[in-house]
Amino acid sequence: MSHPSRFTAFLKLVEGPQTLGKGPKFWSVFALVLLAACIYPQFADSYDVGNNVYFFNWLFMAMGLSLIWGYGGALSFGQTAFFGVAGYAYGVLTINLGDAYGLTLVSLLLAVGISALFAAILGYFLFYGRISGVFLGIVTLSVTLVLERFMAQTAGPQWAIGKARLNGFNGMGAMPSLTIPWPGGAIVLYPDVTLYYVTLALLVSVYLGLRILVNSRFGNVIVAIRENPLRAEMLGYDIRKYQLITFVIGSALAGLSGVLYTSWGNYITPASMGMTAASLPIVWVAVGGRSDLTTTLIGALAVLIVFQTLTIYGSQYALVVMGALLVITVLIAPRGIVIALSDLLPARKSKMKGEV
Amino acid sequence: MAILETRQLNKHFGGLHVTGNVDFALEPGEMHCLIGPNGAGKSTFFRLILGEHMPDSGHILYDGSDITRNKPFERIRRGISVKFQVPGIFKELSVRQNLEIALQHHVAPLMLHEEIDRLLEFLKLSADHMQLAGNLSHGQKQWLEIGMAVALKPKLLLLDEPTAGMTPDETFATGEMLQELNREGMTLLAVEHDMAFVRQIAHQVTVLHFGKVFAQGTIDEIVADERVTAIYLGEADA
């Protein structure tokens, strides 16, 4: 901020036609929200703060789906597959490697890398096999459910990788939390205030990073493919390569969610890849407005909090509400409720017409 | 040397021969129109040149090299560009962004907006540059897509019914646009039904019929050819 030209250069990168929210007004609100998020732990019980990191953990997966589906136009039901793969990979790695010397951080990177590699292999067959539209959803959902079934039958003692037992339907536990080596004693990221700040910082970095990505030349091509794949190809773009890279980035973000979740709760189960789990990200992202990162973030956080609150009264009942919410969104505000609400504001309306 | 040449090009879908042994050559700098009744194989011929369809046999040569097995985007990068019959634009994006996406991979970032403005003026779309492309009139959409195709600075521009659905004034203006591009050295190959438009732009005309080259010549020669009149022009030019 002290260097105005540098700030303008930064704005040029994070603002653009592919993201709502621009100018001093938006960034002031952004700064206020960030400030509120930063001082929140000072006013809350640290146990609650640690628990609420849970909500942040899922938002990486939501933003990844926004990128793949909202920007790229490819409906993937596979986010939880990559979530699960990375979560289990983190468990297996850390149980075997331990938490000294920053090895949990290495495990985090490796686990996200494994989910990205898995996405690259699956995505290669999907996109170079020219699978698109509803079939992409069917294939990715099938892969997710197969993974769930597979992990659910790993109860026997023969299902172990090194010291790590996979434990079938009951899930894998007792992996160490992320640990940052520090002179004078390692910082263990238990669900606590420190983890809150680390996750928040990661969230803001990923959000800004994705804003830069979607407003770049690469982002231009992604939305062009969503709008008209044939035209994009006939402008000389190797569209399958762009689709694959987008899929890998979005899926790796689901992997990051998986690692953070597993480290947060020291626990991962096959149910994290089940039918219910696989469909929830679709609801989070669709309700807010999948074609924009900010609305996705707001929508996903709101839906997660509502869902969690309702679960207190019964989890099946909460799922019915989620289903109804998706139907209502699709019928009344197909572009998302946050976008529909902001369209109602007269100032926004004229702005949308003029600038989008 | 021809810029585009097809040798014994064949494509059939099931038992239906859509193009049969098409030998065709296009000289650099030429403005050439393909005509023929519905189902004559014009669109399939375009798709074969673009690589959307693979031929069953035969060869496609572009600028001296065989591109028969190249992927569509590779052909585009070699200098072929296309304007589809139904406007292939990015409807949810602004006119400006549509052109930006077409220009960005070969124009330096600093020159990009200058180049977009120049194209907008050529396309008579300067006033509408911030409009969503989907909100343009039909004729403007056609022009925008011509602009996107031209933005690649192709050596060879393929146009599939570029004036479909245009008013006579728009059609004439489109003809002038294409003539200007041709004067700058671009080779053009257009599928077209509007004979007035063909007369306006074409140096040479090829008639396709049942997937074969039926006749070739200047527009006057084609119109004077009784065989052609019998299959096509008789009803179309009336």
Automatic annotation (TrEMBL), chain A:
Keyword Transcription applies? no
Q: Name one GO cellular component term.
A: plasma membrane
Q: Which InterPro entries match?
A: ABC_transp_permease (IPR001851), LivM-like (IPR043428)
Q: What are the alphabetically sorted keywords of the record?
A: Cell membrane, Membrane, Transmembrane, Transmembrane helix
Q: Where in the cell is it found?
A: Cell membrane
Q: Which domain of life is it from?
A: Bacteria
Q: Which residues form a coiled coil?
A: none
GO terms, molecular function: branched-chain amino acid transmembrane transporter activity
Q: How does it sit in the membrane?
A: Multi-pass membrane protein
Membrane-crossing ranges are 26-43, 55-74, 80-98, 105-127, 133-152, 164-182, 194-214, 244-261, 267-287, 294-313, 319-345
PANTHER family, per this entry?
A: HIGH-AFFINITY BRANCHED-CHAIN AMINO ACID TRANSPORT SYSTEM PERMEASE (PTHR30482), SLR1201 PROTEIN (PTHR30482:SF4)
Listed name of the protein: Amino acid/amide ABC transporter membrane protein 2, HAAT family (TC 3.A.1.4.-)
- Mind giving the lineage of the organism this protein is from? Bacteria, Pseudomonadati, Pseudomonadota, Alphaproteobacteria, Rhodobacterales
TrEMBL record, chain B:
Keyword presence, Hydrolase: no
Q: Which PROSITE patterns match?
A: ABC_TRANSPORTER_2 (PS50893)
The highest taxon in the source lineage is: Bacteria
Q: Which GO terms describe its cellular component?
A: plasma membrane
Q: Does the keyword rRNA-binding apply?
A: no
Q: Which UniProt keywords apply?
A: ATP-binding, Nucleotide-binding, Transport
Ranges for the ABC transporter domain? 4-235
* MF-aspect GO terms: ATP binding; ATP hydrolysis activity
Q: Which PANTHER family match?
A: CONSERVED COMPONENT OF ABC TRANSPORTER FOR NATURAL AMINO ACIDS-RELATED (PTHR45772), HIGH-AFFINITY BRANCHED-CHAIN AMINO ACID TRANSPORT ATP-BINDING PROTEIN (PTHR45772:SF8)
Question: What name is this protein filed under?
Answer: Branched-chain amino acid transport system ATP-binding protein
What organism is recorded for this protein?
Celeribacter neptunius
**Species classification:** Bacteria, Pseudomonadati, Pseudomonadota, Alphaproteobacteria, Rhodobacterales
